[in-house]
Each structure stands twice: as structure tokens, then as C-alpha cells.
Amino acid sequence: MQRMAESLGLGDVVRFTGLAADVRPYLAAMDAFALCSLKEGSPNAVLQAMAMSLPTIASSVGEIPYLLDHGAAGVLIDPTDEDGLVAGVSRFLEDAAYRRAVAEAGRRRAEGTYSIERMISAYHGLFDELAAEARSERTRAR
Predict the structure, then answer these.
(1) What predicted TM-score, i.e. pTM, was given to this entire model?
(2) Are 36 and 89 in contact (CB under 8 A)?
(3) Structural domain contains residue 9
(4) Is 6 contained in some domain?
(5) How many distinct structural domains can be found in the chain?
(6) Is 11 inside any structural domain?
(7) I want to staple 92 with a disulfide (CB 3.0 to 4.6 A). Which of 32, 76, 96, 103 is the partner?
(8) Neighbours of 19 (CB within 10 A)
(9) How far apart are CA 80 and CA 78, in angstroms?
């Protein structure tokens, strides 16, 4: 990838940082975030970008449509649509109001659905529900 960046004349603007324990400084330096994967699960990188108020464009694969609230909190693209990716990024660059609106929607989604407090509460509720079901099954078995 480094050789490719150099061959394309991008050596001065593309940075290969290696492993980063804290990605926040890198995200803070970005104007937008793009993840154009062919396959994904539920990428933390998308949530991290959203939490940092970065307008996000990502492939509509895996759990990404759910993370981006099916396009309400970020832009979804077909992973094989290069023109769609370019158009989405171009709109971010050309339309500051749109960029801010997408960034804000993403931040609200990340905070409202994926905050640590929300996740703990959801897991607590799930464990309570499973424990109640187990007690009920034990009672029926007696």
C-alpha cells in the first residue's frame, strides 16, 4: 500500500501509522470517514468515527446498515460502486451543511444507542430476562 501511495503521487498526504492504541487524534484530524469494505461484521471503526462527529460513508455490508440506522446516521453505498463512493465523499466536501447534519446524526446515534451506559443497561436487561426464564423453567420442571 505504501508503494501504491508513492506511485500515485500521494506519499506526502497519505500516512501509514501502524498500530494505534488511541485512534482519536487521527479521527480528529479527518473531515470525513469512509469505510469501503466488501465484507464486515460490526466494525468499531464506524462507531468511533460517529462518536467523534465525523460524517461517515460506508459499505452497506454486515451490520453497517444497522450501525448507520439504514442511512439516517451516515451514507450507505454499495461496496462495488466506486462512483457512489466518489459522489458521497464529494457531497461531504462540497456541502458543509449536509456534512454537519450527517455528522450530528451519527454522533446522536452513537451516543444514544452505543454509549457505555446504554450497553450496560441492555446487557443487564438481557441477563435479567434470561435469569427469569431459567427460574421459570426450573419451577415448571418441579
Answers:
(1) 0.80
(2) no
(3) no
(4) no
(5) 1
(6) no
(7) 32
(8) 4
(9) 5
Please, which residues have CB within 8 angstroms of residue 46's CB and are 6 or more apart in sequence?
33, 35, 56, 58, 64, 67, 68, 74
Instruction: Choose among 47, 48, 81, 79: nearest CA to 61.
Output: 79
- Radius of gyration in angstroms for the set of CA atoms belonging to the chain, rounded to a whole number: 20
- Decide if 123 is inside a domain: no
Domain holding 40: CATH number?
Answer: 3.40.50.2000
Cell of 136: 421459570
Q: What is the pLDDT of residues 85-121, one digit of tens each?
A: 999 999 999 999 999 999 999 999 999 999 889 989 9
Nearest Cα to 105, choosing from 62, 45, 40, 57? Answer: 57
**Computed from CA positions of residues 56, 28, 20, 111, in that sequence, does the dihedral angle turn out positive or negative?**
negative
Domain that holds residue 33: 23-113
- C-beta neighbour count of 85 within 10 angstroms: 19
User: How many CA atoms, within 13 angstroms, populate the side-chain half-sphere of residue 100?
Assistant: 3
Rounded CA-CA distance 33/45 in Å is 9
Enter the C-alpha cell of residue 65. 446498515
For 44-71, write each residue's pLDDT tens digit.
999 999 999 999 999 999 999 999 999 9
